[in-house]
Specification:
Layout lengths: L3 E3 L5 E3 L5 H6 L29 H8 L1 H4 L4 H13 L33 H10 E5 L1 H10 L4 E7 L7 H9 L3 E5 L1 H8 L7 E6 L6 H6 L5 E7 L4 H13 L4 E4 L8 H7 L7 E4 L3 H10 L3 E5 L6 E2 L8 E7 L7 H6 L2 E4 L11 H16 L2
Parallel strand pairs: 4-5, 7-8, 7-12, 8-9, 10-12, 10-13, 11-13
Antiparallel strand pairs: 1-2, 3-6, 4-6
Helix pairs in contact: 6-11, 10-11, 10-14
GO molecular function, one term: RNA binding
Organism: Proteus mirabilis
Keywords: Methyltransferase, Transferase
């Protein structure tokens, strides 16, 4: 059947003819198409198996000279038709999109999910820690801003962190101004003080590294089995106040915990951890370098602090409140002192005792 005829005005009109072969051999596919101004929304769009028999192709061939260069949109759709058709199976009304059942590939645009190596993530978490508290974070930013990875702020503290915010923006460090609920999640505590930093941990020195640059007058603190972060934080605060830079601990990472850093109120930035995998051996290294090992005990033979002449270079060794220092550590010491008092209680809190002892060392050698 002829698929075209001329109207009264001489223009060519197109009549779409159903192909019996294609209707029998091809399944119907629902397609979404826009309403056409010609009113052909009810027409069925069928295709022959061969591209050369496609009625749309025939129409395009006739009107190629007229449409070329005058209607960019029609030229663009014709181009898409040529690229996408396979054996003539193309409808100009078909919406070109990703099939709904096609699986998304990893890293396929913004909809893909990136895969992180679990081992790499584990190492990264071991290298990072969260600190919080206004004074602690201000001191940290002042001393080593390059260690900041990410930051969270409550709106009310941002005026006091104006310089930090400017620096982080200029250095492409991520920060977030958040509500209370999100801040608690970020800091993992209610005692966040309105700010939290995710930072790179400092690496603890070994004894030899610390001793290379040790001053002539130097007091180093050694903590045996002192792990409570609030006690450790209070001790670091006293150390910073009285000029103690080195703290020996079997696990120097306790000095980097969020609770310890917050309790230190900025003092943690002035303290260097000294790793002591073997506590007795590390003490011996300091002894060989000219330090006097001073233990704290109320046992017989100890000297009251008020009568003691503390050495210029000493390692002050503190133990946990409950049991104090181990017997082996007491034997390793060169002198033993105690803090006199009423005797109504057995001992002082370890952080309080450290403050009293360090104050006396400072008075004797720097006061």
């Amino acid at each position: 059947m002829n698929d075209s005829y001329e109207g009264k005005n001489g223009k060519v009109k197109v009549m779409y003819v159903r192909s019996e072969d294609s209707a029998d051999n091809k399944p119907k596919k629902p397609s979404r198409r826009p309403n056409n101004a010609r009113g052909d929304t009810d027409r069925s769009h069928r295709r022959d198996d061969k591209r050369g028999d496609n009625k749309f192709s025939r129409r395009d061939e006739r009107g190629a000279g007229k449409s070329s260069g005058r209607n960019p949109s029609r030229s663009g759709s014709s181009s898409l038709r040529d690229n996408d058709s396979e054996g003539g199976n193309y409808s100009p009304w078909k919406t070109i999109s990703r099939p709904g059942d096609e699986p998304l590939k990893e890293h396929d645009g913004i909809t893909g999910k990136s895969q992180i190596d679990p081992e790499q993530l584990r190492r990264q978490r071991l290298e990072e820690t969260r600190i919080y508290g206004e004074n602690a974070c201000q001191a940290m930013f002042k001393n080593r801003p390059e260690a900041i990875v990410r930051a969270w702020f409550l709106q009310e503290v941002t005026p006091r962190f104006r310089e930090a915010l400017k620096w982080m923006a200029a250095n492409r460090k991520a920060y977030h101004v958040v509500e209370e609920e999100e801040m608690v999640k970020a800091a993992r505590t209610d005692h966040h003080g309105g700010v939290c930093f995710l930072i790179k941990k400092r690496v603890g020195h070994d004894a030899q590294t610390y001793l290379k640059d040790a001053p002539t007058k130097d007091c180093v603190l050694a903590l045996e089995d002192v792990g409570n972060p609030h006690n450790v934080g209070a001790i670091m605060r006293s150390c910073a106040h009285f000029g103690v830079k080195g703290v020996i601990s079997p696990d120097s990472s306790v000095l980097e915990s969020g609770a310890a850093v917050r309790t230190a109120e900025g003092g943690a930035e002035y303290i260097q951890g000294i790793d002591a995998d073997n506590f007795a051996q590390t003490l011996e290294q300091f002894k060989q370098a000219g330090y006097t090992l001073v233990t704290t005990s109320s046992h017989k033979g100890s000297v009251p602090l008020a009568k003691a002449q503390l050495p210029e270079k000493m390692v002050l060794i503190l133990g946990q409140e409950k049991d104090g220092l181990s017997d082996s550590t007491l034997k390793q010491g060169d002198m033993s002192i105690y803090i006199g008092g009423t005797g109504h209680i057995e001992s002082l809190n370890v952080s309080v005792a450290s403050g009293v002892l360090l104050a006396e060392w400072w008075r004797q050698h720097h006061g």
